[in-house]
Structures are given as C-alpha cells and as structure tokens.
Amino acid sequence: MKRSIKWLGLVAIAAIAVTTGLRGAAADLPVMDGLPTAEPETVGMSSERLERLDEVMQAYIDRNETPGVVALVARRGKVVHFSALGERDAESGSPMTHDSIFRIASMTKPIVSTALMMLYEEGHFQLRDPISKWLPEFADMQVAIPSPPQERLTGRFKTVPAARQITVQQILTHTAGLANSYRGITQPEFQRMSAQTKPGDTVGDMLKRLAELPLNFQPGDHWEYGRATDVAGRLVEVMSGQTLDAFLKERIFEPLDMTDTHFYLPQSKLDRFTALYRPDANGKIALSEAPTAESRYVAEPHVYFSGAGGLVSTARDYFRFHQMMLNRGELDGARIVSPKTVEMMTTNHTGDKGIWLAGPGYGFGLGYAIVTDLGPAATPRSEGSYYWSGAFGTIFWVDPREEVIGILMQQLRPYTHLNLRPDMASMTYQAIID
Questions:
Q1: Between residues 15 and 233, which one has the greater pLDDT?
Q2: Which fold has domain 4-105+246-429?
Q3: Which residue of 143, 198, 265, 431 shows the fewest CB atoms closer than 10 Å?
C-alpha cells in the first residue's frame, strides 16, 4: 500500500519523529532544522488549494507511474507545503520521508556554477577569459564540420581550427560547443570516449580525453547541453587548489547547514537513500538501481567529483541553497555570493539562441535556465524565474517576483512521458491567492 507523510499535528509528530526527523513547532506545523514554516494564508497562499498538489502527485503514485515523491513549496522565506508521498523503496515497502536522499543529477550544476562564481568574486578570473589559462588541453580546439560531398574524405566530418578560445562564460552558459551525449556530429566519438572511463579516473582525466574531441560548433555560436559544468568544477579545483568535494563542503555545504548533500553518500545514511526506477513497457515502475552500498553514488573509489551531475541531496538541503539565492546570496548570516553576482547569474546571457532542452521562451544564465517570455514558455513561473532539473526526474525553480521556491524530488528515468514536473508548477501557482 502506498503511504504518505504530510504536515502533521503535534501529537502525530512524536510518533514519526524517528523516521522523518521532524519535530513540533508553532502553529501545529512540524519543522525540520533549518526550515522556517508558516501557514500558507500568511504568505498569500491557500491551504485548501495546496491540497490539490498532493492529490495530483498521489494519482501518479496510485497509477504506479512513479514510486514516490517529495514536494516542497516556499514563499517569502517560509515553507508552506512539504509532503512525502508513496515509497522510497517499493521493493522493501519503505515509505518516502521528508528527509529521503535523492540523486539530484544535473541539479548539481547550479551549485557548482555558484562555486565557480565565488572564485570570480575573489579575482581569479573574468568571464571572457579563456579556460585554457587553467586547462591548457583546451588551448587549440578543432571544430567538426560535415564532410563536403565533393571532397575525398573517409570520415563523417572534417575539422577546422576553432575561430576563438572557449571562455569561462561559454562554459557556464553551455555555449562552448563541447562534444556531448545528446546531439551533434561528434556524438559517436563522445560515446566511445565515455566508455574509456575506468575506476580511479578523476574528472580531470575525463576532460583531457574530452579536449581531444572536436567541438560541434564554433565557441559561442549556439546553445548545447553537455559536460560543461564538469569543466566548471575542474576550474574550481585548479583555481582553489582543493578537490571539488572539499571546496563545496567547506565553502557552501557547511556554511548553509546542508548536512545531507554529498558526492558519495556515507553508508550510515543508506536507510534514507531512494531506489531508482524506470518505466517498463506498460509505463509502470521497474527497479533500475537499488539503494545499496553498491550504488555508484556510494561505492568507492571516491575520486570522481562530477560538477555536471554527481551530488545526492534532500529537499531540505536544496531549499536552503536556493533560499540563499532568493535572498540575493545570503542565508542565516552566511554570505555565499554578493547580490550583484546573483543578479549576473540569473540574467539571460544567451540572447535569442534556442535553449532546446527548455523550449521556447527561455534563455540561459550562469548555471540556470531563465524564463524570458511567459507566453512561449507556457509556464506559470514569472518572467525572470530561474530553474533546472535532474535526469532522474527532479526539478526546482526560484521565482523572485512571487518569492516562490518549488522543489520536486523523485527517482525515475526516463520521466518525460509524464507531466508530473510541470504539474508541480501549475499546482503551486494556482494556490497563490493574493
């Protein structure tokens, strides 16, 4: 039977405190440490309408299309909805809890992009600097172009020298042209390169192989998603002299009290780790990876720190990071970046380049997709909202105009056959009543 844990009264809290980590607070709302709460009506939202969010999420669980979700909504710095529905591990019947730990995949990217911008604030680089100043393997890049029909060539493409150096800004905006697994003329070469990764490799080792592949287009010409944030993470390491793991822990996770965010999950926390699922031929869930010590997010060696998608985290921790961003760089006295850096990161840097993964109506900042035109974007999120998502079905957004943060955690890949993630947004915004 699918089970759910929502906001509970003080009597019920004591009974589930061990499994959820919740404790009582004012106004009969439980509070996890670091999550300020309020009744929805005090921040212009409807309690009754927010119930629709769980009804919609529970319907996906009841249809066995996703095993369970954690949904968090905050407005004006207060969490007003926080539900844990379904199961963390359907095979064992373990219920989803508020402190369940998820593979957040590409939701790692905004955190690592922020880490790099912290070094910008310390004078380590300018956005237009070439990355070859720190990663010389990217100094003399070639660009792949289709083989002309009248030339005597044996391959699918020929190469020409890059017209310009790859810049830090192009890495942060995904406009460098790097070979990737999604699309582009060099996709087969990228797949072969990825297969060469062996235990003990670091991201730096992988990037040296990536730099040997030609670019898909001249740097700056288009938007193309891929491993660029692995480059950003490696830049953090070279500039700071620390591993990415150590830098994030010391400079972001500890100051923001993000106690459950890791590149590799400690085995002591396995009892909160979520199983990963995939849809079977009928669209119902089937186990893809069990939440055990053999998971690549747990197993040693702990040396591959992927800025593009290596972190695990909780909804609570991820809220704290993005409340810091919504607060223009500060949370609970911890200043991570300046207000002007937040402004620069959450401004569109890509003009009218197509952001194919987000669709029309979006641009891209430094680590975030940005809503630039509400109509084409077909979203209730305000213009100027910024967001990103993860390959295992997670998503978040920050809406500075409405002062709203939304976070949805699940573990399902692929997930695009479902409307669960856009439903999270529409169910959040229909609850705004002021």
A1: 233
A2: Beta-lactamase (3.40.710)
A3: 198
Position 6 scores a pLDDT of: 55
Q: How far is the C-alpha of 358 from the C-alpha of 364, rounded, in Å?
A: 9
28 pLDDT above the threshold of 60:
no
Q: Based on the number of CB atoms within 10 Å of its own CB, is 354 exposed (0-12), middle (13-18) or buried (19 or more)?
A: middle
Which residue matches tokens 């993470």? 233
Q: What angle do CA 127, 129, 134 make, to 5 degrees?
A: 115
> What's the pLDDT score for residue 145?
94
Asked if CATH classification 1.20.140 holds for the domain at 123-238, the reply, yes or no, is no
- CATH 3.40.710.10 in the chain is located at 4-105+246-429
* 200 three-class SS: coil
Residue pointed to by tokens 């937040």: 342
Element (H, E) at 263: none
Structure tokens at 4: 């759910």
% of residues, the chain, pLDDT over 90: 89
Residues 85, 303: contact at Cβ < 8 Å? no
Q: pLDDT tens digits for 245-290?
A: 999 999 999 999 999 999 999 999 999 999 999 999 999 999 999 9
- Give the closest residue to 3 by CA, choosing from 101, 72, 90: 90
pLDDT surpasses 80 at 59: yes
0.85 exceeded by pTM: yes
